[in-house]
């Protein structure tokens, strides 16, 4: 109250021992122009993918008064959005030679081919300034409706992959964001404090808005949000289609935080995802016809008729027609894409394909493209590249085996790129049939040449037993020693 006992304000926020007081020198008020207001804040912009990098930039906003609160609030929110967008563009410009895939720390990420059955996100390491892919540790949970949900959290980023072998469920995941988030809420434990209890939330509130955007590589994402009822919280998410479902990154935050820049943050981080696309042949037929499918995948031609499968695009040309395997709508195709720089421009391209037929004891086929050896490549990469060219073990084309499978690698080259064809067979298959099948596949690869022909031996040697181990991220070629992920 003032000296006349008139109410001039109501305290709405209070510390535990006294009212919060804010004081300004009276000159600040007396000297400020009438019918105007100014906001000046010292802000710091930071994202988890940028490590310990922080961008300091003042937020300055001036407005002519009077305005009612609704209009003023809308103006300030729009100003914050502009500030966030400008800050991100400044980061792109100032850090161009440090961001993935331009920076020196990007070499390992460019040359490696990672298992992306669950999408990875590239982030810079504070320790060595290298860009490495990360993903949360999560196991898939199969729901009664046939949808599998696999998700987790890393660096305050919640991610989930939802998939199904049911075409109707896949179309529902593609076209109904409410269905996507309700499946996540079925698995995740979201709670709200109510009095002295924690009440589980089984579904978000009212669907708020949706917009589509494309990231730097032309991948289409849907940005959606839901307002929680009786709360200041919002769930915001970006969703990307895959042949067998969707991938989603999401978070729950206050309405004010979401409204002033979280949308721009998500659009920026979408550029740093490392993705693979997996589904059965029937799902791929539907996916390749969808308007939102990335252009680099749309060029893929897939044909199958039971005894034969053909997969062709600009980089790969693979045919299996031995008649020993069964290729139908339930056979599996997985395509992994990687990054590289061409003429100093980032390129997102197909680097690996995996095929699995529908037999009771399936055949696995995999073809991988490796970039040329160079002075800028990791030393271990160049070492293994030279071993392949010289047909040194374990890259000598001989049959290997583990406890349940036999497998063989064949190496081809096309221009300056190296290709690996991997065939994995049930242990019951005879060695001569393994050699014939893998040889037939390589001979149908038009435009490719064998690295070196392996002369046939008079007596078939006993297959070498190899212990398989999970590849480590710092071993660029370790993934060649494991079978493609099913």
Structure commentary:
With 486 residues, the protein is of the alpha+beta class. It is built from 10 helices and 26 strands. The strands form 6 sheets. Strands 15, 19, 20, 21, 22, 23, 24, 25 and 26 form a 9-stranded mixed β-sheet that branches. A 7-stranded antiparallel β-sheet has the order 5-6-7-13-12-11-10, sandwiched between helices. A hairpin with a 4-residue loop joins β16 and β17. α2 packs parallel to α6. The C terminus is likely disordered.
Task: Give me a quick take on this structure.
The protein has 486 residues and is of the alpha+beta class. It is built from ten helices and 26 strands.
Keywords:
486 residues, alpha+beta, 9-stranded mixed sheet, disordered C terminus, elongated
Distance between the termini: 72 Å
Shape by Cα distribution = elongated
Tell me the fraction of residues in β-strands, as a range: 25-35%
Sheet/helix structural class: alpha+beta
Secondary structure tally, helices: 10
Name the average pLDDT. 85
**Radius of gyration based on Cα positions:** 28 Å
Largest sheet: 9 strands, mixed
Number of strands: 26
Instruction: Catalogue the unreliable spans.
Output: 453-486
Q: So what's the oligomer here?
A: single chain
> What share of the residues lie within helices?
10-25%
Topology:
Layout: H1 26-30, E1 36-45, E2 55-64, H2 69-94, H3 107-111, E3 120-124, E4 131-134, E5 141-142, E6 148-154, E7 157-163, H4 167-175, H5 177-187, E8 191-194, E9 197-200, E10 206-214, E11 220-227, E12 233-242, E13 245-254, H6 255-269, E14 273-274, E15 276-280, H7 281-289, H8 295-298, E16 301-304, E17 309-312, E18 317-320, E19 332-342, E20 345-356, E21 364-370, H9 379-389, E22 400-401, E23 405-414, E24 417-426, H10 431-443, E25 449-450, E26 464-465
Parallel strand pairs: 22-26
Antiparallel strand pairs: 1-2, 3-4, 3-14, 5-6, 6-7, 7-13, 8-9, 10-11, 11-12, 12-13, 15-19, 16-17, 17-18, 19-20, 20-21, 21-24, 22-23, 23-24, 23-25
Helix pairs in contact: 2-6
């Amino acid at each position: 109250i003032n000296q006349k006992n008139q109410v001039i304000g109501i305290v709405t926020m209070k510390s535990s021992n006294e009212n919060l007081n804010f004081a300004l020198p009276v000159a600040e008020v007396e000297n400020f122009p009438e019918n105007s207001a100014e906001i000046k804040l010292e802000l710091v912009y930071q994202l988890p993918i940028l490590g310990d990098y922080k961008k300091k930039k003042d937020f300055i906003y001036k407005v002519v008064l009077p305005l009612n609160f609704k209009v003023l609030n809308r103006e300030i929110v729009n100003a914050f959005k502009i500030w966030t967008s400008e800050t991100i563009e400044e980061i792109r410009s100032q850090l161009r030679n440090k961001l993935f895939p331009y920076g020196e720390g990007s070499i390992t990420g460019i040359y490696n081919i990672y298992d992306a059955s669950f999408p990875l996100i590239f982030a810079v390491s504070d320790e060595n300034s290298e860009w490495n892919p990360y993903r949360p540790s999560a196991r898939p949970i199969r729901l009664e409706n046939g949808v599998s949900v696999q998700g987790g959290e890393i660096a305050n980023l919640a991610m989930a992959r939802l998939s199904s072998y049911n075409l109707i469920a896949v179309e529902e995941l593609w076209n109904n964001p409410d269905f996507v988030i309700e499946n996540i809420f079925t698995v995740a434990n979201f709670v709200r404090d109510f009095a002295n209890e924690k009440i589980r939330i089984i579904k978000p509130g009212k669907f708020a808005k949706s917009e589509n955007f494309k990231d730097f590589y032309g991948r289409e994402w849907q940005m959606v949000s839901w307002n929680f009822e009786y709360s200041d919280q919002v769930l915001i998410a970006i969703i990307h289609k895959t042949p067998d479902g969707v991938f989603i990154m999401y978070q729950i935050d206050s309405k004010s935080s979401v409204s002033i820049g979280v949308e721009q943050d998500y659009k920026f981080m979408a550029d740093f995802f490392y993705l693979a696309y997996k589904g059965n042949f029937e799902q791929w037929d539907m996916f390749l016809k969808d308007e939102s499918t990335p252009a680099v995948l749309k060029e893929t031609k897939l044909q199958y008729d039971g005894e034969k499968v053909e997969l062709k695009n600009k980089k790969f040309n693979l045919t299996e027609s031995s008649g020993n395997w069964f290729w139908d709508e339930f056979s599996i195709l997985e395509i992994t894409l990687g990054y590289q720089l061409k003429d100093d421009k980032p390129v997102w391209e197909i680097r690996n394909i995996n095929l699995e037929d529908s037999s009771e004891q399936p055949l696995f086929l995999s073809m991988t493209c490796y970039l040329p050896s160079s002075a800028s490549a990791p030393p271990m990469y160049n070492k293994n590249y030279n071993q392949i060219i010289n047909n040194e073990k374990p890259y000598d084309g001989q049959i290997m085996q583990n406890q349940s499978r036999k497998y063989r690698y064949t190496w081809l080259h096309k221009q300056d790129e190296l290709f690996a064809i991997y065939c994995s067979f049930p242990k019951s298959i005879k060695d001569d049939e393994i050699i014939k099948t893998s040889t037939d596949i390589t001979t149908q690869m038009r435009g490719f040449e064998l690295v070196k022909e392996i002369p046939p031996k008079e007596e078939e040697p006993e297959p070498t037993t190899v212990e398989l181990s999970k590849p480590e991220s710092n071993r660029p070629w370790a993934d060649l020693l494991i079978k493609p992920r099913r």
